[in-house]
């Protein structure tokens, strides 16, 4: 059964710039730059017929292309940090694409996503990282200012069963107009 999710790809040059932020944080497992993405909708472990249905419904999406901007670094998890992320500036076009994906996934029989959509690129997964170390890391690093890139497609990706994700495989590409 494939573990699927829809996402925006991060271009190689942007991934390269973000990869310069790797290192210097005990307990961090840094993502490979080739695996950087912005998850739009986690789909999960599904059977092949459902995967085909998802692919068909995503292919029907006709939305405008738009720009994405990385606005800084942050962490998820609060007192028990679990990830270092690059924040993505929320925009109306990004939110509309994500909402369309959510509606279509529900119509295809998937349970509603319970987490609030917070656009980001995961840079590292954290295991037993101290909140103080994470705060120190964030205080001494900053994402390059105003990293923007054009988005002219979104993708359906799969992940092998593993802890923490990756490597990811692009299963389908859907153009934006």
Question: How is this structure best described in words?
Answer:
The protein is an alpha+beta fold and 177 residues long. Helices cover 26% and strands 36% of the residues. The protein contains four helices and nine strands, in the order E-H-E-E-H-E-E-H-E-H-E-E-E. The protein has helices spanning 12-19, 48-59, 92-107, 131-140, and strands at residues 3-9, 28-30, 37-45, 66-76, 83-88, 120-126, 147-151, 153-159, 168-175. The strands form two sheets. A five-stranded antiparallel beta sheet has the order 2-6-5-4-7, covered by helices on one side. A four-stranded antiparallel beta sheet has the order 3-1-8-9, covered by helices on one side. It is globular and about 45 Å long. The mean pLDDT is 94.
